[in-house]
Write a structure and sequence with these properties.
This protein is mainly α. The protein has 15 helices and no strands. The longest helix has 21 residues.
């Protein structure tokens, strides 16, 4: 429920209307958090509401957030392109469009353009939060700081939310909080702490039953085990990531998990295992941010065949 209210408040913050509260009951429980399930429901529901209405913008944010969360970056780019020439968007909606675009720039390696948008979005979100305080927005602010490599500032905000909401039963809040704490500690090279927080986030994802997030968090844990010289535990985590990716049943999730596991086997010089996985990977569906690992896999396997 808190996430559905959060999206509505995002729009209410820039589009005052008492009717916003009446709209709350129309938001399906499918969108208690960004997910594949939420994306399916929102995509259908968008055709049933008036375009550019309060509810339409709320639904659109859910759609974009779900696309980002489940890493459907090509579809996200397409959706963002729809708004390229629209200068009359609600301010808060525009802020979040900038955040999504900035994250895509980072994925594509365009750090200069990403930094410009991230800096602007950070300033805007901080201003909004002074009037409309939200723990989820604080986490978003911390995430932007992290993207701008302001790790200490990001950590301070996240630890504050952890203290203030330590007794919260909101699993999605905790999933995001602990996941972001894991990210920050990873970049600060506090790998043991990163593992601890990723596992806490993983526990929340398992309770929420969101297989894509479970797969992603197993991957994060595996990367930290790899960074701390624990290849056996890393392998187990990557295998678990693939198992849950298959439960998610989306080609992009499965493909990604196979690439990560195959790349791990290449690094461990277990080429036979890597070769088996490589034959199962659909090369036509590899995302730009996966190309580096895919190239390394193919290069190693070709060298082994010569």
């Amino acid at each position: 429920m808190i996430i559905r209210v959060f999206y509505l408040f995002l729009i209410a913050a820039c589009w005052p209307s008492s009717s916003i509260f009446a709209q709350n009951d129309t938001i399906s429980s499918a969108c208690d958090m960004p997910s594949k399930k939420c994306l399916s429901w929102v995509t259908e529901e968008l055709g049933n509401v008036k375009p550019n209405s309060i509810q339409w913008y709320s639904l659109k944010l859910m759609q974009l957030d779900s696309l980002m969360t489940i890493k459907e970056f090509t579809l996200l780019k397409h959706q963002l392109s729809i708004f390229n020439d629209n200068l009359k968007l609600p301010p808060m909606f525009s802020i979040h469009l900038n955040i999504y675009q900035a994250k895509l720039y980072l994925i594509d390696g365009n750090e200069v353009r990403a930094k410009t948008l991230l800096t602007r979005s950070l300033e805007n979100l901080q201003q909004v939060n002074q009037s409309f305080y939200s723990p989820m927005r604080i986490i978003s602010i911390a995430n932007l700081m992290h993207s701008l490599k302001q790790y200490d500032q990001s950590l301070a905000l996240l630890e504050r939310i952890d203290r203030e909401f330590q007794n919260s039963r909101d699993l999605y809040l905790k999933l995001e909080l602990y996941g972001n704490l894991g990210h920050v500690h990873k970049f600060l090279k506090n790998y043991d702490k990163a593992i601890t927080y990723y596992k806490k986030s993983l526990k929340c994802a398992i309770e929420l039953g969101v297989e894509q997030q479970v797969a992603v968090l197993h991957e994060h844990v595996g990367n930290m085990y790899k960074a701390t010289g624990q290849p056996e535990l890393a392998e187990l985590s990557f295998i678990n990531a693939l198992a849950h990716a298959k439960k998610d049943a989306r080609d992009s999730t499965i493909n990604h998990a196979k690439i990560i596991l195959a790349f791990f086997y290449i690094q461990q010089m277990e080429l036979d295992k890597a070769k088996v996985l490589a034959t199962e990977i659909d090369a036509s569906k590899i995302e730009p941010h996966e190309q580096q690992e895919w190239l390394a896999i193919n290069t190693a396997l070709k060298a082994d065949n010569q």
